[in-house]
């Protein structure tokens, strides 16, 4: 069979199959062209699942003689030589979009430059251009695409339902609006206005405008020449899928599993299984350190050093999350120092679990008093003095009275008690969020009942204590106060040569976590020593998983994540449980301990520690307000 050159119309349709995979990609290309032309307002209309699309902008416009050139393949005003690919300042650069679109639709381009007396229009039907006409029109460019894929029925039948295609277009336009906060974007679907986003002053303003979530928080971080900036919701506002993680590289909307994993890593121990964060992240680096020309639709990029991008993204979110800004001004300060005088030898264990009394510094309470195992039932004691029947006083019986009395607290008779009031002492030292709450008692031997100025807060005692112990264990681990066990003979672990090489490059950092390794061969790692806390049987799977993530993500997060899982399990089995009575001082001390760690709003497994009930809701339920 002889080789022959394909006709231009076949070449154009092949290119269209790559660039115009579905109408949403087509819309993305057209809007990017408008933004490259300096438009500050872009109006998009689409009908019939994107088979008809109209994009109107107020950009610079095109000269009449450039209209037919714009429909030629590889015709562009944005680059002129190879080196330009590594210093791109525009979103389009290949010169394929309009040529591909015109090959599979009827395309009408109307454009007018500033200073021109009138606009000019060019119509192209499935690659066949007509003569240029003079028409009326304002400055900018209007592109109308009709009858998409009518000349390629095979492509037409692969389109999804109108609703699905319309949804994809709106998602694409939402991403475009997020990346260009200073551009006004108006969207009409089947003749109906569905979105209007005026230009904003900052990225954060745009994210709040589009996602309609408040409050949102900001964070940024740099790793060498890679910078990441993030706008995100707190861990209380979550999604059921990862679709609300929006990623941008060089302000281009991209799909990147590694960066998505970095966002999830930042929320580690703050979300439950099946929950995903809501975050918008921008990654910027030197133009010559990222390749944007690796995918036909430009939806993927390749970083020269993917590890730096991963670490920058994770740090941009984690740095703010660890400050717990959702708690307001009373949020604890981040980064508690490792516990002084606490080493791995202090972690006395019973059946493999640490004794909380040994882990906790002396000034902290322990929950090992055997008398606390005695069940205390709820009591009701209403007393109305005869001399004051018109103003009865409710007397609250704390469920922890028995425990409090054992701590030498004297409970006054019921008729001498008064209604608890939230009145902070004057000139007292500033308190953290949790210790500023007034403890009212214990409900169902499980929840600490507290109040602030405007709400009642129920604190899950097990989840709260679990977070405190978990953080103390992790602090001791990171501070190097962990006993290490030397092996008589190195423990050999087989893995691929690529993984061996990857894990050896981070040998010093791994040693900081208490694991000492060496190469026993091109496909074998030897473990000379490891922390006592990690069972020998799981070291192989831990290091293999870590090596895999180093290869894929370029990070050393895997081992710390496994250690975190182990510490979470240990904490869960060594803290106060539901159904255990606590004294008033014990509850207050637990709240003070929570203020030591900013992430005390969630247990290590991501469960919320507290539930709030505003007083206005109670007043509404009681009919005091409408």
Secondary structure topology:
Blueprint: H1 8-19, H2 23-36, E1 41-47, E2 52-57, H3 66-69, H4 97-103, E3 106-112, E4 119-125, E5 128-129, E6 133-135, E7 140-146, H5 153-156, H6 162-179, E8 184-189, E9 192-197, H7 203-211, E10 217-223, E11 226-232, E12 245-249, E13 252-254, H8 257-266, E14 279-284, E15 290-291, E16 302-303, H9 306-321, E17 349-350, E18 353-354, H10 356-359, H11 401-406, E19 438-443, E20 447-451, E21 455-460, H12 461-478, E22 484-494, H13 497-504, H14 507-512, E23 516-521, E24 524-531, H15 536-553, H16 557-572, H17 584-594, E25 610-614, H18 615-621
Parallel strand pairs: 1-8, 12-14
Antiparallel strand pairs: 1-2, 2-7, 3-4, 3-7, 4-5, 4-6, 8-9, 10-11, 11-14, 12-13, 15-16, 17-18, 19-20, 20-21, 21-25, 22-24, 23-24
Task: Quickly list its features.
626 residues; alpha+beta; Heat Shock Protein 90; Ribosomal Protein S5, domain 2; 4 domains; nine-stranded mixed sheet; globular
Short overview:
With 626 residues, the chain is of the alpha+beta class.
Radius of gyration: 32 Å
Helical percentage: 25-40%
**In CATH, what is the homologous superfamily of the largest domain?**
Histidine kinase-like ATPase, C-terminal domain
> How many structurally independent domains?
4
């Amino acid at each position: 069979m002889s080789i022959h050159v394909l006709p231009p119309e076949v070449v154009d349709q092949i290119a269209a199959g790559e660039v115009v995979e579905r109408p949403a990609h087509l819309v993305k290309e057209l809007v990017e062209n408008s933004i490259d032309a300096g438009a500050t307002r872009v109006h998009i209309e689409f009908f019939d699942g994107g088979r008809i699309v109209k994009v109107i902008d107020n950009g610079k416009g095109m000269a009449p003689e450039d209209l037919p050139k714009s429909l030629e393949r590889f015709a562009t005003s944005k680059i002129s030589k190879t080196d330009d690919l590594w210093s791109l300042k525009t979103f389009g650069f290949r010169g394929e979009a309009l040529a591909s679109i015109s090959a599979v639709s009827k395309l009408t381009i109307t454009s007018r430059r500033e200073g021109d007396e009138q606009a000019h229009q060019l119509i192209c039907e499935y690659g066949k251009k007509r003569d240029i006409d003079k028409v009326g029109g304002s400055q900018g460019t209007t592109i109308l695409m009709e009858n998409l894929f009518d000349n390629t029925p095979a492509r037409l039948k692969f389109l999804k339902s109108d609703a699905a295609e319309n949804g994809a277009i709106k998602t694409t336009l939402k991403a475009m609006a997020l990346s260009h906060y200073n551009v006004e974007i108006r969207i009409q679907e089947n003749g109906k206005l569905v979105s209007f986003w005026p230009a904003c002053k900052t990225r954060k303003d745009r994210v709040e405008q589009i996602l309609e979530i408040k409050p949102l928080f900001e964070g940024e971080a740099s790793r060498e020449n890679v910078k990441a900036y993030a706008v995100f919701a707190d861990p209380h506002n979550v999604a059921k899928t990862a679709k609300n993680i929006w990623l941008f590289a060089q302000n281009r909307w991209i799909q990147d599993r590694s960066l998505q994993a970095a966002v999830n890593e930042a929320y580690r121990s703050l979300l439950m299984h099946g929950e995903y964060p809501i975050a918008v992240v921008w990654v910027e680096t030197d133009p010559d350190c990222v390749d944007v020309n690796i995918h036909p639709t430009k939806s993927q990029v390749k970083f020269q050093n993917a590890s730096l991008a991963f670490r920058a993204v994770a740090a941009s979110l984690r740095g703010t999350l660890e400050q717990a800004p959702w708690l307001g001004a009373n949020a604890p300060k981040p980064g508690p120092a490792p516990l002084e005088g606490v080493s791995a030898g202090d972690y006395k264990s019973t059946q493999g679990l640490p004794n909380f009394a040994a882990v906790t510094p002396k000034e902290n309470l322990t929950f090992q008093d055997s008398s606390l195992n005695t069940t205390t039932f709820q009591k009701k004691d209403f007393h109305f003095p005869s001399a004051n029947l018109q103003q009865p006083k409710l007397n609250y019986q704390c469920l922890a009275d028995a425990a409090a009395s054992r701590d030498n607290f004297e409970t006054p008779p019921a008729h001498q008690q008064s209604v608890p009031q939230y009145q902070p002492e004057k000139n007292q030292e500033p308190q953290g969020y949790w210790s500023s709450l007034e403890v009212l008692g214990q409900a169902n031997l499980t929840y600490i009942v507290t109040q602030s100025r405007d709400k009642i807060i129920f604190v899950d005692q097990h989840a709260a204590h679990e977070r405190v112990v978990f953080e103390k264990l992790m602090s001791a681990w990171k501070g190097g106060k962990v006993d290490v066990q030397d092996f008589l003979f190195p423990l050999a672990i087989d893995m691929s040569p690529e993984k061996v090489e990857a894990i050896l490059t981070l040998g010093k950092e791994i040693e900081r976590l208490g694991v000492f390794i060496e190469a026993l061969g091109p496909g074998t790692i030897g473990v000379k020593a490891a922390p006592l806390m990690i069972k020998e049987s799981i070291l192989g799977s831990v290091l293999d998983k870590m090596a895999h993530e180093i290869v894929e993500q370029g990070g050393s997060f895997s081992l710390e994540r496994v250690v975190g899982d182990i510490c979470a399990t240990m904490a869960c089995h060594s803290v106060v449980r539901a159904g255990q009575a606590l004294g008033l001082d014990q509850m207050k001390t637990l709240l003070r301990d929570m203020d030591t760690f900013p992430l005390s709003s969630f247990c290590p497994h991501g469960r919320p520690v507290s539930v709030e009930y505003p007083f206005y809701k109670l007043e509404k339920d009681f009919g005091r307000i409408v």
